[in-house]
Amino acid sequence: MTAAADNPAAAATAAGEQPVCRRLVGRTAVVTGAGSGIGLASALRLASEGARVVCADVDTDRGKAAAEQTGGLFVETDVTDEGQVEALYKAAYDTYGSVDIAFNNAGISPPDDDSILTTELDAWQRVQHVNLTSVYLCCRQAIPYMRRQGRGSIINTASFVAVLGAATSQISYTASKGGVLAMSRELGVQFAREGIRVNALCPGPVNTPLLQELFAKDPERAERRLVHVPVGRFAEAEEIAAAVAFLASDDASFVNATDFLVDGGIAGAYVTPQ
Ligand code: NAD
Description:
Elements: H1 8-14, E1 28-32, H2 37-48, E2 52-57, H3 60-70, E3 73-76, H4 82-96, E4 101-104, H5 121-149, E5 152-157, H6 171-190, E6 196-203, H7 209-217, H8 219-226, H9 237-248, E7 259-262
Helix pairs in contact: 2-9, 4-5, 5-6, 7-8
The structure holds nicotinamide-adenine-dinucleotide.
The site of nicotinamide-adenine-dinucleotide has 29 residues, from helix 2 and helix 7.
């Protein structure tokens, strides 16, 4: 696996050495799954651009640590629980007076979600709840605040597997991300004239601890995937966070209802370089 160390641009981003603009001063951002990976990198990036960040996670220790790092608020939230999601958005509004950015990002990818031939109903349903129903619940809470303000940016984390089939199947995960993508597009269209943009973020494989552990144990498994990535490496979480900050900001004022791919060219590739 090619690490960030071999890629100066990714390494500089990861080390926080990129010049950061201040596009989000005065904005309130709610980030779910803020305790780890893409959510944590994005919470930090949004805060560095001036946003007040509300960190939501089911993991109290990680969520609290994220809030400390961003100087924001931690709200313990299980995103599958309607009452907790309602309380999350209320806490954001009550504390900071607005809900301008909703990054609905929490998601799971458990090992018992695999080929359709071996994935049992309970695994299917668990993944649908955490990855898809949660996005419905979060959007349902965020949109009324944004309508009242006449402004808002919602970014829902889908995945490149929402637009590409994988023979290394995780059937419920893929279906859930397809649902996130279609729901985001529809909401983006429905609320466009009320100043609300909704985009589905579609990351390619990201170099998170989970992925590192999995592929360190099984290099063949990594190689099976890397061959399809034109740039020849996985993304760093900070590279995904940069896209989140863009979509959250007014720089993306005409970017709406998209499948926003940040995948190193995977979805556009037929034959990749050797
Ligand atoms: P991660 O496991 O590093 O972080 C996910 C966070 O979500 C964790 O802090 C976890 O505690 C939290 N979480 C899990 N269930 C929750 C729940 N019910 N309520 C609240 N919080 C909960 O994962 P990541 O790799 O950063 O992935 C973030 C998102 O990006 C997910 O939706 C994932 O499907 C998507 N994604 C990841 C990759 C990748 O390669 N890592 C690629 C494409 C899309």
